Amino acid sequence: xxxxxxxxxxxxxxxxxxxxxxxxxxxxxxxxxxxxxxxxxxxxxxxxxxxxxxxxxxxxxxxxxxxxxxxxxxxxxxxxxxxxxxxxxxxxxxxxxxxxxxxxxxxxxxxxxxxxxxxxxxxxxxxxxxxxxxxxxxxxxxxxxxxxxxxxxxxxxxxxxxxxxxxxxxxxxxxxxxxxxxxxxxxxxxxxxxxxxxxxxxxxxxxxxxxxxxxxxx
Amino acid sequence: xxxxxxxxxxxxxxxxxxxxxxxxxxxxxxxxxxxxxxxxxxxxxxxxxxxxxxxxxxxxxxxxxxxxxxxxxxxxxxxxxxxxxxxxxxxxxxxxxxxxxxxxx
Lengths: 218, 105
Fold this sequence. Notes:
The complex is a heterodimer of chains A (218) and B (105).
Chain A: H1 2-6, H2 14-39, H3 43-63, H4 67-91, H5 105-126, H6 147-155, H7 159-180, H8 193-217
Helix pairs in contact in A: 2-3, 3-4
Chain B: H1 7-27, H2 31-56, H3 62-92
Helix pairs in contact in B: 1-2, 2-3
């Protein structure tokens, strides 16, 4: 990656160096946190590293000047999905067993490394992207589409997609409830605090009576 | 921004993230770990979409819009997947994928 960064097409400025350092740190954080997610033994630690990775990706969106996506990333991924994952871990806490990975984990490693080294990397480096040349004056600010354009797109050209996404969310909500629903008859009875208190009092009274009877017998 | 960092650097980061997520999804024994790998892969696709939008077509909104759709799909997938994990845990009392093999012929 350092090689790519060194191959600068245009002039050089101190601001560029700062951006490059920030980008390098973010890339290291994203990749490092993702590595921790897939290799760390404790599932809760993996979930926390996943949150770190999500945050770093949000910061990368900020450097790419996509502010709205960055905020949506923090809201949806960090705020909702990670909490959902943490709750699932809490509800399914079980004996994890000896092994962290499956029997054929080396095949998975081979597939991923092969995909990265043999397919993705040569394609990405070898391809020439036709990046549009800046038009107009040299230091003119680029026109970027902002939140307003996204909102307008949702009610104009992407209205069908928007509706389909809404239906998808509704179906997923109903589906999740139906799948995770437990019938009342099969549910384990959980005692409330007052019930537990009464039970404990009764047990104590029984124990005292038994000891009293034993004393009387002596 | 586009001058300081070439497009390829962002794409390489996204590709690495995708491969790490793929490895996690294929090799973790814990079902929740598999789901975490899938989330990483979806994140890398989002990075790609935003990068292509920023570098190639900054004036159109197709990139961010589809990134938002993928975030929606990821949220729906996480909700249904975690509900299924909880249902599996209730039925088999395990979340290890090699113990959930009742479809094996």
